[in-house]
Automatic annotation (TrEMBL):
Protein source organism: Pandoraea pnomenusa
A UniProt-annotated Pfam family: EamA
Keyword Zinc-finger: no
Residues that span the membrane, as ranges: 23-43, 49-71, 83-102, 108-129, 136-154, 166-185, 197-216, 236-256, 268-287, 293-312
Top-rank lineage group of the source organism: Bacteria
Family: Belongs to the EamA transporter family.
Cellular location(s): Membrane
Keywords per UniProt: Membrane, Transmembrane, Transmembrane helix
Protein name: Carboxylate/amino acid/amine transporter
Length: 328
């Protein structure tokens, strides 16, 4: 028996290759979003084993930085001193430190939804730093996202619709830093075109390590660091999880970079929202966390703002194609 279309030269074969070529980059971003939506869980496991959030973040970012240094060592000479790269390191480090700490100590979905207020911060930072107009479109998305956040956060008992605890504040800070990182990365691509794309990620992970060390005195300090070192040294399971998580983060970054280089910015931004779906399912299954009707409605407004920012692109506005650089 023969199979129709089994030859290598027919139109169907060409169409299949084209489909695979188009699907692979989108799948790469989808894989990255899935990893980010699950990353909160191993950090919580490490915390239960004595490796607090900040030391764990330093450790995993350090592993990722080491691997990227080895893989991209030939690109290191494209780095140049620039305050823009310092800003990328600062914004990226703040994003990751706040994101890891917030999802470890707070309600995963509330923290993540506050993180995804990114369109609000992107519009504002692009206006301040790039001179871009917010416009009616941007103003509408800002209103929609902020309205959703207010609906999610407001309650008669708590009064003003602002983050209710440190974990939620960390999620909001991470989202703002994420947006700042995207805007700065656009400036870097314009002002420093010779700096290789992988060196942006390398700079970001360096910022994650340095940022974690700077913040650690406020999260247990030396005692927390000693406890983490002791746990990693004495518990092979904890050390294995930390090492595997760091390697996964580095590999995910490489995979996502492949996708981002081949998928339009607006499409990439939409695919990245799959992280919320993965986080919602995983937090419900693994941590028994749920959302009420009002929180779901507010979250849907935030997600809608992110979706609309992707399907209603404005060529003159800040792209989000570099968003994958900012996540660990």
């Amino acid at each position: 028996m023969t199979v129709a279309g089994n030859g290598a030269h027919g139109p169907a074969s060409t169409s299949g290759v084209s489909l695979r070529t188009r699907a692979a980059p989108a799948l790469a971003i989808l894989i990255g979003s899935s990893v980010w939506g699950l990353a909160w869980f191993p950090y919580r496991v490490l915390a239960q084993w004595g490796v607090a959030a900040i030391p764990a973040q330093i450790c995993t970012a350090g592993v990722a930085l080491l691997l990227l240094t080895l893989v991209y060592r030939r690109s290191l000479d494209t780095l140049r001193w620039s305050w823009l790269l310092v800003g990328v390191a600062f914004a990226g480090g703040t994003t990751n430190v706040a994101f890891v700490w917030g999802t470890t100590h707070g309600h995963v979905m509330r923290v993540l939804l506050l993180f995804y207020l990114t369109p609000v911060w992107t519009a504002l930072f692009a206006h301040w730093l790039l001179g871009e107009r917010v416009g009616l479109r941007g103003g509408g998305l800002i209103a929609l996202a902020l309205g959703g956040a207010g609906l999610m956060l407001w309650s008669p008992e708590l009064g003003w619709p602002v983050p209710n605890n440190a974990g939620e504040w960390a999620g909001a800070v991470a989202g703002a830093a994420f947006a700042l990182n995207n805007v700065l990365l656009r400036r870097v691509s314009q002002a420093l075109p010779d700096v290789r794309a992988e060196m942006r990620s390398w700079t970001l992970y360096l910022g994650c390590v340095v940022g974690g060390l700077l913040v650690m005195p406020f999260d247990g300090g030396v005692q927390s660091g000693h406890a983490a070192i002791s746990a990693l040294a004495s518990d092979a399971g904890a050390a294995s999880v930390a090492l595997a998580l760091g390697c996964t983060i580095a590999l995910t970054n490489v995979i996502v970079q492949f996708g981002l280089a081949r998928v339009p910015a607006n499409q990439a931004a939409l695919i990245m929202l799959f992280e919320i779906v993965v986080a919602a399912i995983s937090s419900w299954w693994l941590a028994s966390e749920g959302l009420g009707a009002r929180e779901i409605a507010g979250g849907l407004c935030i997600v809608a703002a992110g979706v609309l920012s992707g399907i209603l692109p404005d060529p003159g506005r800040c792209k989000s194609a570099t968003a994958g650089d900012a996540m660990v």
